Amino acid sequence: MDSTAVPDAKVALFRPEFRKIDVINSESFNASLLSHLKEGVRLVLDLSNVQFIDSSGLGKIIFALRSFRERGGDLRICSVQPPVMVLFAMVRLREIVGIDNTAEESTAALRGGVAAGTSSPGPGGAS
Question: DSSP secondary-structure letter at 95?
């Protein structure tokens, strides 16, 4: 897992190296994702390497989102590949979490306090 702190304002970047997040590796993904869970931390989840997510992986993302928000932080997703964006569109994930084209956009939104559920159109079409 690639994990980088973005300077200032408790914003961190997490880029999983998995091509797939599924029942086989979702616990490992979850542990790495939640390793950033600290009071007030805002996380950019960069999915640029991920080509497939199943329901267990989606559940881990939603659980992490709730966990970060309960601790005064937030989470935004960026660099979503088209096959994953299809799943996100089907479950209407944009309604609860911001999805951006790039990590820079997500970081800027987290630093600027953009409301949850707002997002740029992102790869794969308009919101």
Answer: G
